[in-house]
Amino acid sequence: MIPDAMQLDWSLFAVALGGALVTWLTRIGGPWLITRVRLGPAASAALEATPGAVLVALVAPSALSRPSDALAAAFVCLIARRVPMVVAVAGGVAMVVLLRWLL
To answer: Which residues cross the membrane (predicted)?
Structure first.
C-alpha cells in the first residue's frame, strides 16, 4: 500500500504539465513570431534594451539594500565594459561575497 503523501494527484500533475507547456510555447513562440514580423527602429531598440532593463530591475533592489551590494554593483558597472558579461557577473558575485564577509 502506498502512503497518501506518495500518491500522484492528477490535477496537480495536469497543472504542472500545463505550466510547462505554456512556458515552452512562450520560449519558442517569441523567436518564431519575431522572424515573421517586421519591426520598426523604435521596437528594435526596445527589444535590444530589454535584457539590460530586466537585469537592472533584478539587481537594483538588492544593490540598494546593503552598502556591500551597492559597492559590488558599482564594481560590476566599472568592469562590464571591459570584460565579457559572464566575467563581470562572476566578478560581481565574488565581490558581494567578499564585501559581505568584510563589512
So the answer is: 12-34, 46-64, 70-99
pLDDT band at 14 (very low <50, low <70, confident <90, very high): very high
Question: Which amino acid type is present at position 76?
Answer: V
What is each CA distance from 40 to 34, 51, 53, 54, in whole angstroms?
Answer: 12, 19, 20, 22
Residue bearing cell 558581494 = 96
Q: What is the DSSP string of the chain?
A: ---GGGS--HHHHHHHHHHHHHHHHHHHHHHHHHHHS---HHHHHHHHHHHHHHHHHHHHHHHTT-HHHHHHHHHHHHHTTTS-HHHHHHHHHHHHHHHHHH-
Q: Where are the domains of the chain?
A: 10-39, 49-103
Q: Residue 9's pLDDT band (boundaries 50, 70, 90)?
A: confident
